[in-house]
Amino acid sequence: MNPITHLLVSWTVANADGLNRRERAMVTLAGIAPDLDGLGVIPEYLTRHSAHPLDWWSNYHHVLAHNLWFGLAAALIGFALATRRWTPALLALVAFHLHLLADLVGARGPEGEQWPILYLYPLSHSGLTWSGQWALNAWPNFVITGLALALTLYLAWRRGYSPLELISKRADQALVVTLRRRFLFPPV
């Protein structure tokens, strides 16, 4: 799935149990953090015509950060930095695993290639795949993104904060105020 969908789904998970702003941020970041291994696309692109190209994206995307150990590290960081410790850590683990599940079911490449999830890497190099995996641009991914966006906007309207709180309190409040003016707050 695309990073926007991962963000929206993770932020929705972060809203499951009345977490504070910092804890919501940690859970949301745990849900999008697996795609850090996709940043290898930058050096790969920049060195593609060099004598020694760096195939970091081709070799390590869905490997380095799409495994159990990375998920446990994300949960441990959440545990260490959170006020309420266990709840944010467990929700971070849930958001992380939803990311893996989404990639498992909906991340087939344009040429039909699958990206297996090397869940126990580096202990095991066997990957999880699903024969029914749909393409990145398949309709189910668009439906999931649309539903996640609708739920995110509803939660922003209802609770008074949105994923924009991760980057700007002002932008977050502007969105919430706009939603509430448009859709008559408080709810009936």
Can you walk me through this structure?
By secondary structure, the protein is mainly alpha-helical. It has a domain at 3-133. It has eight helices and no strands. The chain is globular.
Helix and strand arrangement:
Layout: H1 3-14, H2 21-32, H3 41-46, H4 56-60, H5 68-81, H6 86-106, H7 139-159, H8 169-182
Helix pairs in contact: 1-2, 1-6, 1-7, 2-5, 2-6, 5-6, 7-8
* Global shape: globular
Count of distinct strands: 0
> By helix and strand content, what is the structural category?
mainly alpha
Biggest sheet descriptor: none
How far apart, in Å, are the first and last alpha carbons? 35 Å
β-sheet strand percentage? under 5%
The gyration radius over C-alpha positions equals: 18 Å
Task: Classify the oligomer.
Answer: single chain
Low-pLDDT sequence parts? none
Helix content: 55-70%
**What's the tally of helices?**
8
Element string (H = helix, E = strand)? HHHHHHHH
Overall average residue pLDDT: 92
Concise synopsis of the structure shown:
The chain has 188 residues and is mostly helical. It has eight helices and no strands. It has a domain at 3-133.
